[in-house]
Write a structure and sequence with these properties.
This protein is an alpha+beta fold. Helix content is about 50%, strand content about 15%.
Length: about 550
């Protein structure tokens, strides 16, 4: 079965002050079936709004076209003013590959969109980044040079003929840049100054393009040039970063406005630290920052872990706590509240219906288990008990990393705490997956069986569902077995005051394995492929035997502390 292709579209509209105008644009996006609107991020000072939506390519292209059409109707560029560079009602419209689609394929969709906009809306369209038709137009800044005000002259210049649409100045809608690019983070760093000149100095220190070299290093010195007459440049601190300084009247501060075009080369925290270093050298303080649009989860987790390591603290804590550290460290909530559920792209795309049990309270989960419903059953409970065991192991690791006399061992225990978090999350997923496996069997049982073809299809579905229901608890056994190593290390080398917690963790791991083993056996007996069933049961029995030995070993170690 082909996996679903997903692309993200992040159009920037030249309107950030009139919510009624913005609603007309976002309404047409939401009317397109198969598209999910993720974020609307207006800026009053920039008079610009970044909209983010995602879906399969054809649906995204349709939504983008409708949004560009509506923007051309409701935004008048001849009256537009704002801090951000711009040249059209829909200023830029990038497409970003999210899953199961290449950049080349995404660029093809960008060209389809551009051709339709040019042909049907009669707007001049320039292609940029990975969809650019000329090397010099890959850079958006080059395409947008001179902004809206320069368009009449550009339209008359043969060198500036658009890729699609008429080479004719559209006073109301301007021109649009459509492209395909990697995930870009739009990020602003707040300063305790109102000086745009000083903000720009910091931006020049940070951005890859740096600043132009001048004679004697003086601001008013003559520009130094190479043998081709091109200005020489002093590179900035951060690769793949574009930056300018500006003043935001709405907040009464200057900011460094950045685009991080390759977060593997320059992650968010590195850009922030570079700004902070440059600002400190100039007697200026960084007071916070803001993310424009959405951000990948990995970026926030990498940032949180970076700042935890700076503090010599364990990074083996929950995802939510790591993100909280990232938000506080970057000051992302200085100007407006930062809601991870709305700002992190994976959280926006997450389908909570796949985790109904884990999203319950402890009491609701217990009540549901105790009800007359056959699910959740022993398999889900085994996985949950295993998750609790791994959690206890992680807890002892974290307590050990913070023990005053073991400051020199914080990294050792941090790594074990991370392992506990990994196992906990994997086992928690199996809590719901075990119930889903049972539901597959029920679905197969209910399939029609009137004809021979239907009987054959039903039998195949039953076999596949039963195999799945056997493999899920087996995975619980494998993961719970892995957790014994964590518990052993914590019982023997961790904080001695918490040795009993490691012991309880070991008891949980063994209970999870024994419970899951019962589920493996009861489901495996219904498999038609008895050779496969025997293989799984044999491996599971071996794990169950080892679990008894590991548990006894760890409990003996714990007893020595008591």
């Amino acid at each position: 079965m082909n996996k679903k292709q997903l692309i993200e579209c992040v159009p920037n509209f030249s309107e950030g002050r009139n919510p009624e105008v913005l609603k007309q644009i976002t309404d047409v996006i939401e009317q397109v079936e198969g598209v999910k609107l993720l974020d609307i991020d207006p800026g009053k000072a920039t008079n610009r709004t970044v909209v983010t939506f995602v879906g399969e390519p054809a649906a995204v292209i349709e939504a983008a076209f409708q949004a560009i059409r509506k923007a051309s109707e409701v935004i008048d560029m001849s009256k537009h003013q704002g801090e951000h560079p711009r040249m059209g009602a829909t200023d830029v419209c990038p497409l970003i590959p999210i899953s199961n689609i290449t950049m080349e394929e995404t660029a093809e969709w960008a060209h389809r969109l551009a051709k339709r906009v040019g042909d049907e809306l009669h707007l001049p369209i320039y292609m940029y980044e990975s969809a650019a038709t000329r090397p010099e137009w890959k850079n958006l800044a080059t395409v947008r040079a001179g902004e809206y005000e320069a368009l009449p002259k550009k339209m008359a210049d043969a060198a500036w003929q658009p890729d699609y649409g008429p080479a004719k100045f559209n006073a109301k809608a301007g021109a649009t840049a459509i492209g395909a690019r990697d995930f870009l983070i739009a990020y602003n760093v707040n300063l305790n100054t109102t000086s745009v000149r000083r903000a720009n100095s910091i931006a020049f220190d940070v951005r890859e393009n740096g600043r132009i070299k001048r004679e004697g290093g003086k601001v008013n010195g003559a520009i130094l040039k190479d043998e081709h007459g091109e200005p020489l440049r002093e590179p900035g601190m951060c690769k793949s970063v574009k930056a300018i300084g500006w003043f935001i009247e709405e907040y009464g501060i200057a900011q460094i406005s950045m685009n991080l075009t390759d977060i593997n080369e320059t992650p968010l925290h590195k850009a922030f630290e570079a700004c902070r270093q440059s600002a400190n050298n100039r007697g200026i303080r960084v007071t916070g920052s803001e993310l424009v649009g959405l951000v990948p989860l990995k970026v926030m987790l990498d940032t949180g872990r970076y700042f935890l390591k700076q503090q010599r603290r364990s990074v083996g804590i929950s995802e939510e706590e790591i993100i909280k550290i990232a938000v506080k460290s970057l000051g992302l909530d200085e100007l407006t509240p930062f809601d991870p559920q709305k700002k992190i792209i994976e959280y926006q795309l997450e389908d909570s219906s796949n985790r109904p049990l884990i999203n319950m309270s402890l009491q609701d989960f217990a009540n549901e288990t105790a009800s007359e419903s056959v699910a959740p059953g022993g398999g889900s409970i085994a996985a949950y008990v295993g998750a609790l065991g791994a959690s206890l192991g992680g807890m002892v690791a974290n307590l050990s990393s913070h023990r005053r006399v073991w400051d020199h061992r914080w990294e050792e225990f941090s790594e074990w705490a991370e392992e506990g978090q990994r196992l906990k999350e994997a086992l928690l997923r199996l809590v719901d997956e075990d119930t889903q496996a049972f539901n597959r069997i029920i679905d197969a049982v209910r399939m029609p069986k009137s004809t021979e073809e239907e009987k054959s299809e039903r039998a195949a579905a039953m076999e596949a569902a039963t195999l799945y229901a056997t493999e899920v608890p087996y995975q619980t056994m494998v993961l719970a077995m892995e957790s014994f190593e964590l518990m052993k290390e914590m019982a023997t080398k961790g904080n001695p005051n918490s040795a009993s917690d490691a012991g309880v963790g070991a008891l949980c791991a063994r209970a999870a394995i024994r419970g899951a083993f019962l589920n493996v056996r009861i489901n495996a007996k219904d498999l038609k492929d008895q050779a496969r069933a025997a293989e799984i049961v044999k491996k599971a029995a071996n794990i169950a035997k080892q679990a008894e030995e590991k548990e006894a070993e760890i409990i003996a170690s714990v007893e020595s502390h008591l």
